[in-house]
Design goal:
This protein is α/β, with parallel strands linked by helices and 300 residues long. Helix content is 47%, strand content 10%. The protein has a single domain, classed as Aromatic amino acid hydroxylase (Phenylalanine Hydroxylase), CATH 1.10.800. It is globular and about 55 Å long. The structure holds 7,8-dihydrobiopterin (HBI) and fe (iii) ion.
């Protein structure tokens, strides 16, 4: 399965992974040594290319928390960051760590790490010919996209709650619903700051083309975040999102983390689901998209 333009693999493959797509892990929790000393000059150079490209684009586009997190972490253009140095700063800040994994890990393993405030990050970096095109989350997506946001207390608690909620949702057979919430927040979320609309989702922040599309393009819908609505909304796995959901501030995620999703799952069971580009009568629409980008693709 290929994920075009974003740095992420799609949910069906991710959910199917436990069935055995990857080689058997060395350790039961799937962690490996990052092997920082083994990165080659070429690999560091790919990081630098990606870092510099994104850093030019993100001022005025990434949210304040992202910028602050980046500033306070040992992440720079010259080298792929060392997870031990990242973890030292994160641990001091709010008890999170970054652990290395070979790529996608089974859902339950992923959730178990998050529930314990360990962020599993791919240790490998994409090849020079796949700067915008990648199957699995690599070190650039995971470290550049996710780790700065983990410095924020609301995101830190929210992602832990997602890990705990993921384990519950798996048992209830409703993981697809919860995964949509993660997708439309942690991966592709937008936040309304006083000085404008900003990116906080790692799938956007680590993608050059989607950064521009999500904020500046007339094509996608931008809709005020509503939990139940999002749980019922499919997402694009192979291309830019057709709709983005906008939160008022990051503390809204903390409120989300405190909600018991159990009754919600029951309420929406058997209810209709929505296609990614559909607008609903109840939506608080911030931007009604032209839909042009995806219409052109469908016509092609
Ligand atoms: N593994 N390394 C890694 N990164 C992810 O984002 C990830 C994963 N395994 C499963 C998974 N995500 C998801 O599909 C869950 O969030 C539902
Ligand atoms: Fe991600």
């Amino acid at each position: 399965m290929l994920r075009q333009l974003n740095e992420h693999a799609d949910a069906p493959t991710r959910h199917g992974l436990a069935a055995g797509a990857a080689a058997a892990p060395q350790r039961p929790d799937w962690t490996i040594d990052q092997g920082w000393d083994r990165y080659t000059a070429e690999e560091h150079a790919v990081w630098k290319t990606l870092f510099e490209r994104q850093s030019k684009l993100l001022p005025g586009r990434a949210c304040d928390a992202f910028v602050a997190g980046m500033r306070d972490l040992p992440i720079g253009p010259e080298q792929i960051p060392d997870f031990r140095a990242l973890s030292e700063v994160l641990m001091q800040r709010n008890g999170w760590q970054v652990v290395a994994v070979p790529g996608l890990v089974p859902d339950d393993v992923f959730f178990e790490h998050l529930a314990n405030r360990r962020f599993p990050a791919g240790h490998f970096i994409r090849k020079p010919h796949e700067l915008d095109y990648l199957e699995e989350p690599d070190v650039f997506h995971d470290v550049f996209g996710h780790v700065p946001m983990l410095m924020n207390p609301a995101i830190a608690d929210y992602i832990q709650a997602y890990g705990e909620g993921g384990l519950r949702a798996q048992k209830l057979g409703v993981l697809d619903k919860l995964a949509r919430v993660y997708w439309y927040t942690v991966e592709f979320g937008l936040v309304q700051q006083a000085d404008g609309l900003r990116i906080y989702g790692a799938g956007i922040a680590s993608s050059y083309t989607e950064t521009v599309f999500a904020l500046d393009d007339a094509s996608p819908n931008r809709i005020a975040f509503d939990l139940e609505r999002v749980m019922r909304t499919h997402y694009r796995i192979d291309d830019f999102q057709e709709s983005y959901f906008v939160i008022d501030d990051l503390d809204q995620l903390l409120e989300l983390a405190r909600i018991d999703f159990g009754p919600l799952y029951q309420r929406i069971e058997g209810q209709p689901e929505y296609q990614p580009g559909t607008l609903l009568p109840g939506d608080r629409v911030r931007t009604r998209g032209t839909g042009r980008y995806h219409a052109a693709k469908r016509a092609a």
